[in-house]
Specification:
Helix content: 10-25%
Strand content: 15-25%
Largest sheet: 19 strands, mixed
Number of helices: 10
Number of strands: 41
Structural class: alpha/beta
Distance between the termini: 67 Å
Length: 734
């Protein structure tokens, strides 16, 4: 009954704060059914032992132990209990996933015939928060699961006395100790998981060779940095099928094995170890039974060995590195996207013939190839009657060349990512054969055209083609991709109109067509999700002044919002206000309309004074849209001590007949008789006598806000908001 680690983190936080009510947020909705014995009631002393355990439980969020009552004599029918059909002895105690809190009672020693004990995802501990030593006395125990319990201290060597144990899971604990070599006494052990306990370490793992039946070994996260002969040790365990040693600080995989015993090995994960030697010298390339191989962030370099092409059982090869992207926005200028890799962790080359790897499903090589030719790479991919390759990612690998038509033969592809390379030419027409493709990312290359055949990829949900040299129109049939949720064609030279067929893509959440040469209107069906395409020449893609105001507001407030998000308590209210302010201002930019009057953003200083007197487009009363800025104004009374006078909220709707194409200067007063209806805008007011205080330079003033953590930030928020006034019909501003 495993739960996710994220849920259990909430549990531990709740325990620390003694706020047990939040347990209800992390428990799942499943019904926990009691196990039943086939006949007879349980042994009396064992029933008493279970009741003693319940007495030491301080919190039971699901009332899981509700059936554990002294009046119910047959404990074999209690939740989590299973008894032997023949003897009536308790043989299974399963409290996993119940989030119980309390102490592990020594009374459990009365369960002498116990074979199965699971306490995972609980906060049950022995003395000093660790594993009770008496656990080593359960002579009949076959299954012991203590994962995700937050146990601390050391592992008792008495666990080595469990001579019948077949399954031991101690993962995601907080032990700070050496791994006891007595675990080597567990000669019947088949499953051993010591992962994600990063303060466990070992200088000698030779005890593993005394586990002849071991199938599953996971020691990821344990410090094995001083062990040089680790490959020789694991090679002795011929029964191994699963081996995971990621993040163990292993120094090298450069080892020659005279005789290979690991003929049953299927899963091998050596990720996040800084090997730093040629990839071809690693010991595992002749283990042809491997189906999943993970070598991410291992600092391996040089050409892949040709023996890779003989690993015909291989389904997954992950040799990538994590990447980070940075978007830099500057007020009054177009967005600039700057690509940045975390580290250059692998630097191999891949020219191996993979045509016989017919079972290959995942090939992930992000930021791990020093160079390559995409044409030859695609030609070397599996040539099989039933091609199974589903995930292909080659992001940021300095690859050159053009994409071959053979790409269209990879008909099982669901994800294809070739971004941040130097690929040239057209997207091949054969891409239309990829009917299962859901994610396509060719961004940041030098591609020139989008074929109409792309519209045949009707399973597409995400299309990323930004930052290329794309010319020509958007494919007219793009509306056939009715599952489309995200479309980014920005920073190209695409011409023509936006296809009306995009209106059929009702699942679209985001479209970015900025920095192209599009003409004509934005189809009304997609206007609410189109990003304002800055820098384009089409009338349909200019920014409105409200969009400019929204950008200004976001840039000015964003540093404060970041600081607020890191504070506690009452500061969360300010964070929520800023989120809502950002959201409502963002919605102002989604009203489909003719071009609006842009303010002269280039003259706006950090205080925003340059926007004073700028009006939004004229608006008429009685619309479905309310003035969102007005709706959030009442919150400022409580936030800033009631110093602001609030205007009435009015319903508005843009009137395209009264928009003007060009106004210079953009900020000017309008006479009331000329307005006729209602104009509304927010602008910084010079008359307020205040300027926005740059974050970090402000000082909390006495009398307005209490001097508590976060008061400085609140002061600065109020200083900025106090510079904003509301313009009314006919008011002379500026």
């Amino acid at each position: 009954m495993h739960q996710s680690p994220a849920l259990f983190v909430l549990l531990l936080m709740a325990a620390a704060a003694a706020n047990w009510s939040c347990f209800f947020l992390v428990t799942d909705a499943r019904q926990l059914e009691p196990a039943h014995a086939a006949g007879g009631s349980c042994i009396g002393r064992e029933r008493d032992a279970l009741l003693a355990l319940k007495q030491d439980i301080s919190y039971d969020p699901e009332d899981y132990l509700g059936s554990w009552q002294s009046g119910r004599q047959d404990c074999c029918r209690w939740a989590g209990i299973m008894c032997s059909n023949t003897t009536g002895h308790v043989i299974q105690l399963d409290l996993g996933g119940t989030h119980l809190v309390g102490q592990i009672s020594p009374s459990l020693l009365s369960l002498e015939q116990l074979e199965y004990l699971s306490l995972d995802y609980t906060v049950l501990t022995g003395p000093n928060g660790g594993v009770p030593e008496f656990f080593g006395s359960f002579k009949n125990l076959r299954h012991l699961d203590l994962s995700y319990m937050g146990l601390v201290g050391t592992l008792p060597p008495q666990l080595g006395n469990l001579s019948k144990l077949e399954y031991l899971d101690l993962s995601f604990t907080n032990f700070n100790c050496t791994i006891p070599p007595q675990l080597g006494n567990l000669s019947k052990l088949e499953y051993l998981d010591l992962s994600s306990s990063r303060r466990m370490y070992s200088t000698d793992i030779s005890w593993l060779t005394r586990l002849p039946l071991l199938l599953h070994l996971d020691m990821s996260g344990a410090n094995l940095s001083s062990i040089v002969d680790w490959a020789l040790v694991v090679n002795i365990i011929s029964s191994l099928e699963y081996l995971r040693l990621s993040g163990c600080s292993l120094s090298s995989a450069n080892r020659s094995l005279t005789h290979l015993n690991l003929t049953n090995l299927q899963y091998l994960d050596l990720s996040t170890n800084n090997f730093g030697h040629p990839i071809a010298s690693a010991w595992f390339w002749n283990v042809t039974s491997i189906t999943e191989l993970y070598l991410t962030e291992t600092s391996l370099y040089g050409p892949f060995p040709n023996s890779l092409g003989n690993m015909t059982s291989l389904r997954v090869l992950c040799f990538g590195c994590e990447l980070a992207s940075l978007r830099e926005l500057s007020l009054g200028s177009d967005p600039e996207y700057v690509y940045q890799a975390t580290i250059t962790c692998n630097a191999a080359t891949m020219t191996v013939d993979l045509t016989n790897l017919c079972d290959l499903e995942t090939l992930w090589l992000d930021a791990s190839l020093s160079s390559g030719n995409i044409t030859k790479f695609i030609e070397n991919l599996p040539h099989c009657p039933s091609n199974r390759l589903k995930y292909l990612s080659l992001k940021s690998n300095n690859m050159i060349g053009i994409m071959a038509d053979r790409l269209g033969q990879l008909t099982s592809l669901t994800m294809l990512c070739l971004s941040y390379n130097n690929i040239t030419g057209s997207i091949p027409l054969s891409i239309g054969n990829l009917s299962n493709l859901g994610f396509l990312d060719f961004s940041n290359n030098h591609l020139t055209t989008i074929p109409q055949e792309l519209a045949n990829c009707t399973s597409l949900k995400n299309i990323h083609l930004s930052n290329n040299n794309l010319i020509g129109p958007i494919p007219l049939g793009i509306g056939s991709c009715t599952r489309l949720e995200y479309l980014d064609l920005s920073y190209n030279s695409i011409i023509g109109a936006i296809p009306l067929g995009l209106g059929k893509c009702t699942r679209l959440d985001s479209i970015d067509l900025s920095n192209n040469h599009l003409t004509g209107p934005i189809p009304l069906e997609i206007a609410s999700v189109v990003s304002a395409p800055v820098g384009s020449s089409a009338s349909a893609v200019r920014q409105s002044p409200l969009e400019k105001q929204a950008e200004f507001f976001e840039v000015a407030v964003h540093p404060l919002h970041e600081a607020v998000a890191s504070l506690h308590g009452w500061m969360l209210a300010i964070g929520g206000f800023l989120e809502r302010a950002k959201a409502v201002l963002g919605r102002l930019s989604r009203t489909p309309a003719d071009p609006l009057v842009p303010p002269d953003v280039g003259k706006v200083g950090t205080s925003g004074a340059g926007l004073h007197g700028c009006f939004s487009p004229r608006a008429r009363v009685c619309s479905e849209i309310k003035a969102p800025v007005m709706q959030i104004m009442p919150e400022l009374l409580e936030l800033c001590g009631g110093v602001l006078t609030l205007p009435p909220v009015e319903e508005v709707r843009p009137d395209s007949r009264e928009f003007s194409d060009v106004v210079s200067p953009p900020c000017q007063a309008l006479a009331s008789e000329k307005c006729g209806v209602a104009d509304a805008a927010v602008s910084p007011s010079p008359e307020s006598g205040r300027q926005a205080v740059p974050f970090g330079d402000g000082v909390a003033k006495s009398g307005l806000l209490p001097t508590v953590p976060g008061a400085v930030v609140a002061r600065e928020v109020c200083d900025f908001l106090a510079t904003l006034v509301v313009a009314y019909p006919g008011s002379a501003v500026g």
